[in-house]
From TrEMBL:
Keywords: Leucine-rich repeat, Repeat. It is found in: Cell envelope. Gene3D superfamilies: Ribonuclease Inhibitor. Its main location: other. Residues 43-81 form the Leucine-rich repeat-containing N-terminal plant-type domain. This is Leucine-rich repeat-containing N-terminal plant-type domain-containing protein. It comes from Phaseolus coccineus. Belongs to the polygalacturonase-inhibiting protein family. It comes from the Eukaryota. InterPro entries: Leu-rich_rpt, LRR_dom_sf, LRR_N_plant-typ, PGIP. Pfam families: LRR_1, LRR_8, LRRNT_2.
């Protein structure tokens, strides 16, 4: 028709539709050839820090998945937040004693500002002190360094990390005293410092922990001195002070109104009258007092403890009298009462 302009198609013979299909195909190939540009979630700062972290550990094969060509949110031993894409968890756990991870805790770990949990477990060749740059991790909730070769003192700077809920530094070679400043941690639920070389007393400041107080697992050290009277203010689930050199009166840890479940004071030098103590009837499941200097007799109040599963008062030579009948006390064998002056079931009958 005259006066109308004809629509000219591309001279290559493509229709407009086929041209669009071609463009989409090219875009698809780009996604396949350059996937990182479209799928990388990990924050570039965190990725750079983790690669430096790996380098400071001498590039162990254990961290072979930490490939700079891949998204660090997909690497082993790290967790990436789904929304912020920041690294919030670094958990290095070995199932093999010969894992070739060695050196000190990498200083670069302090440059992961969103880190909430840090774990090193079963790396005997990880040595040196607890890294000072950890003090920068203000969001940290869990610090777990266990079964390693780390040494030196427990640092005061841990008290600056107000979000800490768990400190577990067990099976290491830490030495020196326990910092009293740890009582300033308002959210601490568990403090586990067992199987180290710690010396000195249990800090009296620990009585000022927010009630009910954290579990205190301080066993297998060389702690000495008396139990601070202030600990009577606390009522955590677990207190384990076993295998130390503690002495004196520990009766402040007992009481019928407490809700403690596990109380282990074994293999110390405690000396107090057991007969005048009371016990929580419903919560207590574990009471171990063996190898001390406890005296008096076993109180009838112990027969009222409903769910006692572990009980041991052996090697307290001044403990005497008849074992009260009833409750759970007769279900334990004679070794729970061995090397005392007690009598009655399960031991031989008392004589006049």
């Amino acid at each position: 028709m005259s006066g109308m302009v004809a629509l000219e198609l591309p001279s290559c013979g493509f229709t407009l539709l086929s041209k669009m299909r071609s463009v989409l195909m090219v875009l698809g190939l780009c996604v396949l050839v350059f996937p990182v540009a479209f799928s990388e979630r990990c924050h570039p700062h965190d990725k750079k820090v983790l690669l430096q972290f790996k380098k400071e550990l001498n590039n162990p094969y254990f961290l072979a998945s930490w490939n700079p060509e891949e998204d660090c949110c997909t690497w082993y031993c790290v967790e990436c937040d789904d929304k912020t894409h920041r690294i919030y968890d670094v958990f290095l756990v070995s199932s093999y004693p010969d894992t070739n991870l060695s050196g000190q805790i990498p200083p670069s770990v302090g440059d992961l500002p969103y880190l909430e949990s840090l774990t090193f477990h079963k790396f005997p060749n990880l040595v040196g002190p607890i890294q000072p740059t950890i003090a920068k991790l203000t969001k940290l909730k869990s610090l777990l360094i266990t079964n390693t070769g780390i040494s030196g003192p427990i640092p005061d700077f841990l008290a600056q990390l107000k979000n800490l809920e768990l400190i577990k530094l067990s099976f290491n070679s830490l030495s020196g005293s326990i910092p009293s400043s740890l009582s300033q941690l308002p959210n601490l639920e568990s403090l586990q410092l067992d199987r180290n070389k710690l010396t000195g007393p249990i800090p009296g400041s620990f009585g000022s922990f927010k009630k009910p107080g954290p579990d205190l697992i301080l066993s297998h050290n060389q702690l000495s001195g008396p139990i601070p009277a202030s600990l009577g203010n606390l009522d955590p689930d677990r207190l384990d002070f076993s295998r130390n050199k503690l002495e004196g009166d520990a009766s402040v840890l007992f009481g019928s109104k407490k809700k403690i479940q596990v109380l282990d004071l074994s293999r110390n030098m405690f000396s107090f009258d057991l007969s005048r103590l009371t016990f929580p009837k419903e919560s207590l499941i574990w009471l171990d007092l063996n190898h001390n200097k406890i005296y008096g007799s076993i109180p009838v109040a112990l027969t009222k403890v409903e769910n006692l599963q572990q009980f041991n008062v052996s090697y307290n030579p001044q403990l005497k009298g008849q074992i009260p009948q009833g409750g759970q006390l007769q279900r334990f064998d004679q070794y729970a009462y061995f090397h005392t002056k007690l009598c009655g079931s399960p031991l031989p009958p008392c004589t006049k």
